[in-house]
């Protein structure tokens, strides 16, 4: 009854400090009567239930006098009365009245109180309920307290009881006390169920009452009218009504009413004119908040006005009921349910219907609200007949499970599809955005993932077969075996384990069956015992079933990882192997990897790698076993190495030299996990260095020539990640690694991962010019260009990256053109993958250095594509596109005209000077320097305010930016009074400081800028004051002729100014 | 004991045994000493009860039937007592035997009526007591029968309703864990280590001081096992 008291009962607002009072409304009266009937009458209560002692007393202020309890069974003690009956537990009296406080501890006593109170029992009950707002919690304990939302307390309680019954029956010789406790629990349950029924009963009753009181509002009226409009038309065989319309002006007031304000005061909402086929005159209806009724129709005196009086007293709650009463034709059509419905353009009415229903049933849950929406949407798609059935009668609008499922699925699906594109976004973008997306607690390991595969696994959705679906026969067999596991000694356990292994454990049904019958717990428990054989048997099964993602999670949840980590130190090698292999399977998600690390598992796994000799000629079984242990250790480390912190822990535990040793192995099954681990770890700089210094490159190169594709893939990936360092690249070349890499491309393999790894390795290796030489000899370019078609993005990124690097060597640019690579490259500029775009823009930029290539790029409209990439969100893409634009402008014919043809292009590039990224700024400055060569364009960008923006950037300390900024300033000086403007924007003094930089390139461009600026006398003065002469004189002595010339020119300008000044003074 | 003659005889025995066990000279010598220490009732003959005591104490084999069966397996000549050769060879198999030795030993132990086949009835006899917790509703005998059927399915390769030695061997080759599928009759690694340690420490001598420490150790083992098992049962 808690729900009813909280929701349905009408409470006054609590003003006087303590709890609210029940209003004196008919609704509450009814509620109280029901409760009273329940408390007083026998109404299905058993005597035991009556005697059940409450967990907490129901206490309230009573009007009863102690003397009232004069009968037997009560003892009077002055002003207080206690009952003779006491609770069996703590001998507390079941009823106690002291002063005006009455406490009652059982239903029986409560019944007594009501009897004693006689005709004032209602008052007592009211007081009791007012002071104990959640009587159920008092009576049966807090676990049954009324809560919002789903209340599972009964189910849980029921489960508990059944469990205890089971337990009790098993331990048949248990004490009586337990049984009594159980009996009491059963009582509590049955009483709770009865109270629940009462609650339900009362809620239903109050809902009926409440609905009766609901008044019309504009929305309901509009809804009904819209529905009826659909079933109205001229043909009386097809339509139920001739027409239905609002009467009067079509003005809708803010509150939704159409009636004139003064009529609204009387509760009128709007007026309707309805023409039925079988009624001669139109019906004029007033929609009032109290219901629908007929009025007297249009007034004869005043046009446009109605006679508002009602001719008869009939008021209808629904418009349909009313028309039915007036028009037999309408009633007939409605019941026949066969007529046309006009297609409506206005779909809003569906919403109106839904809301309307909501108001009818105030207590309907929110989810139903959604269903109405879905349902009504669905209805518009359904055939005409269906619509007719559902809407006018509105009985079909009941929630059905089918819709619910549908809507949920839809939501999930849309949710999923929302997420997918973000996942595909480049890594760069992901790491940037992640930090903001994730809550702080999750951040610990967040940046440590080196592969995205594990991410996806986190989201694996639990697919459970439907509860009532037929279970396969394996399920029952497995259940039987698990029973033996639970209830048998080691012998039975071993038999059961062996038998379990005979099932196809790779099948998901079997895997989940083991979990669902509680087998996982037992298996994991077995690992904690001393029985080696049981442990082996259990691990063999766990190893198999942990291939399933859900099982992995369950194992981690049950604390299996901790135990397995412990086993890693066991004497028995079989055990160690199995534990490591299982860990390798389980540690495929982040939390598991963390658990392994936190329990010292990494250290132990690294110890497993330490085996005696790998490739000795004679192998005893024992040595083979220890090699196997090392292999399993490597497997587990491979899984663990996907977390950054684990990599660190592995390094600290000394994994690198051990891995280096194992890398000398000749067996593929050993090499794959070892190289896999190395490949995973190579993204860490410390590993990259170690891989080189421990001499692993040689072995990696050797294994590139293996015949196993997976091994080749991991080797190539390891080289890909390590080859950021020059020494590593050189080593790869020295050990002859470039040939097999190119060989992988020509092998025509379909393995995309292998291709991605190989092309990645080629990309990184081609950063060294010596390697580029070798690639040239191997004709790598032709193959790479061939890979520009029909490849996934992972491969394309690397292919294009490699082409970009290779194109730094001029002959290769021609080679790319001859291989037909320009056009696919330019086409890739339209992509969305940001990592790919960075590489493509770079490659296109490199190709554009060659005028012949530029002709093709221009023909393909490549510059426009590059330009539009300046609008990309990603800064790396922006910068790379801006860099690529520079050679394009340099080498294009009619570059100025081309640039001008991009609408808004110049404005866009100038606005990028507001970027915060130094690389973007440098690139944009370089581009502007090129653009400014064309005078007309220079004029345009000057208009866009390029001068103050460049001047603002002059304070930078970044040499790369300084160089291009100075270049841009030098070029921009050539228009109008830009020189003066730069001086005014205080760009000159900072430029002078650039001369202190150590970068020769900065000097050159700065000198050029200073030379340009010095053509303005004001600037000369500023420069001189900033001490420009001394460094400039030094630079005149430079070997760089360009630098010499501009320095000298600048000094010349300053000197000339001084001379002119002197001349002016003396003349 | 320490007479010259005695020593010579022992040397002879050691040399003989060296041929038919995989033990080294020192171990055999220690085992012979151990044997004579064990023979309390009758010199040179180890009685069943004395041997059972030994099995229980060091090798953690506790099942009554199986202890007797191991005794019989050791007692090649079915004389009712163990000779020194029987003892040393048997323990040698325990400690250092090949898989084949173990298969033979286990099979002999499980073949209760020595007819070279393990029948359903024998299995039932052996597995009768292995369901610790009697499940509520079902007949425990039924459950054991089902267990027997499971074992039968795994072991009876030729489907003749009984398990022969080749059947058994094949099953063990397929799954090593099946070796002791019908009850524990081999020591595990830990027991072996403890026993060997004991031999070396005491020189085979069965001193009271030692026995205390060993029995303590055993107690500890037992307690630990119990604990393990309690843990296991508690959670169900």
TrEMBL record, chain A:
Stretch list, region Disordered: 359-468
Keyword set, alphabetical order: Coiled coil
Ranges in a coiled coil: 158-192
Keyword S-adenosyl-L-methionine on entry: no
SUPFAM superfamilies assigned: ARM repeat
Positions of ARM repeats: 518-560, 559-601, 736-762, 779-821, 904-946, 986-1019
Bias kind Basic and acidic residues: ranges: 383-401
Coiled coil keyword on record: yes
Database matches in InterPro entries: ARM-like, ARM-type_fold, Armadillo
Pfam families membership: Arm
Protein name as it appears in the record: Armadillo repeat-containing protein 4
From TrEMBL, chain B:
Region of interest called Disordered, as start-end residue ranges on this chain: 209-236
SMART domains associated with the record: EFh
Highest taxon listed in the record's lineage: Eukaryota
Gene3D superfamilies linked to this entry: EF-hand (1.10.238.10)
Pfam families hit by this protein: EF-hand_7 (PF13499)
Keywords linked to the UniProt accession: Calcium, Metal-binding, Repeat
A GO term, aspect molecular function: calcium ion binding
Residue ranges of every copy of the EF-hand domain listed in the record: 62-97, 98-133, 143-178
Protein name: EF-hand domain-containing protein
